[in-house]
Specification:
- The structure holds two protein chains of two kinds.
- Chain A is mainly beta.
- Chain A has two helices and five strands; from the N terminus they run E-E-H-E-H-E-E.
- Chain A has a five-stranded antiparallel β-sheet with strand order 4-3-2-1-5.
- The longest helix of chain B is centred in the first third of the chain and has 15 residues.
- The termini of chain B are far apart.
- Classes of the chains: A mainly beta, B mainly alpha.
- Chains A and B meet through loops of A and helix 2 of B.
């Protein structure tokens, strides 16, 4: 059913550049590296829906995990703490570095 | 560049205010109107979020949560040609007058 480019366990890098207009990728994960925790399916693109478009083509959506210590400077919680967030495929690229 | 609504991790934001408050009638109405506009196919939740994000930093900071909803709903209704700003302002003035 899916044309998803990534599968669970893949390491991914989130685009660092900001993009004009409505996006669902918050600043705090941009430029960060995480891993695919799950493939959630394909959904209409909110970046197009937000301007009255029909939102096609649908975009694969992933549950992406990050180490909290990679997201926040001076994070004081456990090094095992993770943050999970839903991100669309067009924000992701294969990560080179091991995490 | 981060925009005003994208607050996660911004420095100096302080702790989250977790205090609760009763939802007021007008806040229920703000929600209900948005649901109806979505059901009628006039605008979508994605467009509404985009409209909230377009309010500009000054207004965004000044307005409360549902005040932002109402401001965004007005933006979209004008954008879609359902009402003009003048019609909305006139109606608001009529209400203010009748309610004192």
């Amino acid at each position: 059913m899916t044309s998803a480019r990534f599968e669970p366990g893949d390491h991914v890098h989130v685009q660092a550049e900001s993009k004009a207009g409505h996006v669902r990728t918050p600043d705090y994960v941009r430029g960060k590296t995480g891993w695919i925790e799950g493939v959630l399916g394909e959904f209409k693109n909110p970046e197009l829906l937000a301007y009255g478009g029909i939102g096609l083509p649908e975009k694969p959506l992933y549950k992406v995990g990050f180490h909290q210590t990679d997201l926040w400077d001076g994070y004081v919680g456990s090094a095992d703490d993770a943050l999970y967030i839903d991100l669309y495929e067009h924000w992701l690229e294969p990560a080179r570095k091991e995490i | 560049m981060t925009r005003i609504h994208d607050l996660g991790g911004s420095s100096g934001a302080g702790p989250i205010d977790k205090s609760q408050h009763e939802v007021e009638d007008w806040e229920h109405l703000a929600d209900a109107v948005l649901v109806v506009l979505d059901k009628k196919g006039i605008n979508t939740i994605d467009e509404h979020r985009r409209a909230i994000e377009s309010l500009g930093p000054e207004r965004y900071k000044k307005l409360g949560y549902y005040e932002r909803w109402i401001a965004a709903t007005e933006l979209l209704l004008v954008e879609k040609g359902v009402f003009t700003s003048e019609e909305i302002d006139q109606k608001a003035a009529e209400f203010e007058e009748s309610w004192g």
